Amino acid sequence: MSLFTSSAAWVTDEHRMFAEMAGRFMDDALVPNVETWIEQGIVDRSFWQDAGTAGLMAGSIAEEHGGVGGGMGFDAVTLYEQSARGDMGWGYGIQSIVTHYIDTYGSEEQKLKWLPRLASGEMVGALAMTEPGTGSDVQAVRTRADKDGNSYRLNGSKIFITNGQSADLIVVAAKTDMSLGAKGVSLIVVETEGADGFRRGRNLKKLGMKANDTAELFFEDVKVPMTNLLGREEGQGFYQLMKQLPWERLTIGIMALGAIDFAIAETVKYVQERKAFGQRVMDFQNTRFKLAECKTKAEVLRSFVNDCIAKLEAGELDAATASMVKYWGSEVQNEVMHECLQLFGGYGYMTEYPIARLYADARVQMIYGGTNEVMKELIARSLDV
Ligand SMILES: Cc1cc2nc3c(=O)[nH]c(=O)nc-3n(C[C@H](O)[C@H](O)[C@H](O)COP(=O)(O)OP(=O)(O)OC[C@H]3O[C@@H](n4cnc5c(N)ncnc54)[C@H](O)[C@@H]3O)c2cc1C
Fold first, then answer.
1. Contact at 8 Å (CB) between 95 and 60?
2. Does the structure show a pLDDT above 90 at 60?
3. Which of 104, 199, 244, 281: disulfide with 218, CB 3.0–4.6 Å?
4. Which is the catalytic residue, given 81, 131, 234, 248?
């Protein structure tokens, strides 16, 4: 299994070596622990640190900020190698997104302060946009950041926040001007340690992605230095979010591809061994056709994902194309999980078989990162010019 297509021009020998190393790390440190993390509803903190020590989170960060100065392709590899082992619980996708907010919009001082700690796994990051009253419509957030001397006072609440229980650094979308819509939104970094008035709700129980900690967050007069604003001036948050969402959406397409590859491999193994009516389930024409369809969908998605990574590396991944890879990848992922689970028969419905988990994990991919309906709106907008 590999993220790369044979013709992908963005892939170098370094990416291939990195993929081998990341794959070995996942086999040794992730695979044996997934069941435990699912039971406890959170990934062990030591895994974040081990992943940092192995260099898995440093690929795209500049050397002077604690990374190795590669590019986004390295983060793509880490995410693929994780999901191709059947895990969606480790919240590295969000860590990578947060890292790139700071890398793109942070001052030199902010980068020096936070990037090395995110790369090493000392800090876990979260991105808090969604609120109980608004999800798709980000400009309608009600969390407010009022000026108070050299600080902001944050008030409001966020919901469904990935890495919400473990996060030490949270990029919060808040209104610095309540009278404005999109232009009133700013991104403010909250360091949770010692933040008076900051509180985490319970670890939310979910249909899938059970190893990930997802939380509601509360801010009651939380004092944050004004120097934690991302970007030179207030009111840039909505624009910053829109500029970074292509990477968030591509991460969903990459994770979809990894999960699909894993599901097909597991299903092929199963149907080769399982017998019905005196023959292997693999030998029924229906099985062969279903698997052929799944494999074709995987290869089409792989080409599209590789094309999107190349565009991202070149600074050319536009909002509509990123919406397509998120929408298409997650739809195909759900179709493939549906077909693969069916080929397991009753065993596919038992949670001890990974296909049941993959089926449940896939569903949210159509919802978070912007729902697929919102993706279609963005795609349609690019046609209606
Ligand atoms: C497991 C999980 C993890 C998440 N992680 C994060 C995170 O880390 N950070 C974060 O900020 N958020 C996170 N989210 C929130 C997620 O991004 C939102 O749930 C999502 O954007 C949808 O918002 P909503 O739930 O408020 O739905 P709503 O916006 O209320 O949408 C409800 C329905 O209306 C449809 N709809 C809305 N607007 C339109 C439109 N214009 N046209 C057509 N249909 C429309 C939607 O498609 C959906 O079907 C997470 C969610 C989950 C479930």
1. no
2. no
3. 199
4. 248
Query: Could you say which architecture CATH assigns to the domain 13-123?
Result: Orthogonal Bundle (1.10)
Domain boundaries, the chain: 13-123, 126-235, 238-383
Rounded Cα–Cα distance for residues 191 and 174 (Å):
15
Q: What pLDDT was estimated at residue 275?
A: 98
Q: Which positions ≥6 away from 192 have C-beta within 8 Å?
A: 167, 168, 169, 170, 198
Residues 6+ away with beta carbon under 8 Å from 343: 267, 270, 271, 281, 287, 290, 291
Q: How far is the CA of 337 from the centre of ligand 1 (A)?
A: 22
Q: Which two tokens stand for residue 77?
A: 């590899």
Report the nearest atom of ligand 1 relative to the CA of 164: 8
Q: Catalytic site residue 248?
A: yes
- How many angstroms is it from 131 CA to the middle of ligand 1? 10
**Stretch 280-296: mean pLDDT, rounded?**
98
Question: How does pLDDT run across 89-108, given as a tens digit for each residue?
Answer: 999 999 999 999 999 999 99
What pTM was computed for the model?
Answer: 0.97
pLDDT tens sequence across 297-354: 999 999 999 999 999 999 999 999 999 999 999 999 999 999 999 999 999 999 999 9
Distance (Å, rounded) from C-alpha 83 to C-alpha 252? 10
Q: Cα–Cα distances in Å, from 312 out to 97, 125, 244, 374?
A: 13, 22, 11, 21
In this structure, whether the domain defined by 126-235 belongs to CATH 2.40.10.10 is answered with no
Nearest residue by C-alpha to atom 37 in ligand 1: 136
Please tell me the CATH superfamily of domain 238-383, with its number: Butyryl-CoA Dehydrogenase, subunit A, domain 3 (1.20.140.10)
CA-proximal residue: ligand 1, atom 48 (nearest):
371
Atom of ligand 1 nearest to the CA of 367: 20
Within 6 Å (CB) of ligand 1, which residues are found? 94, 127-130, 135-136, 160-162, 206, 209, 214, 364, 367-368, 370-371, 373-374, 377
For residue 132, how many C-alpha atoms fall within 13 Å in the half-sphere facing its CB?
A: 7
What's residue 59's pLDDT? 87
As beta bridge partners, residue 189 has 171
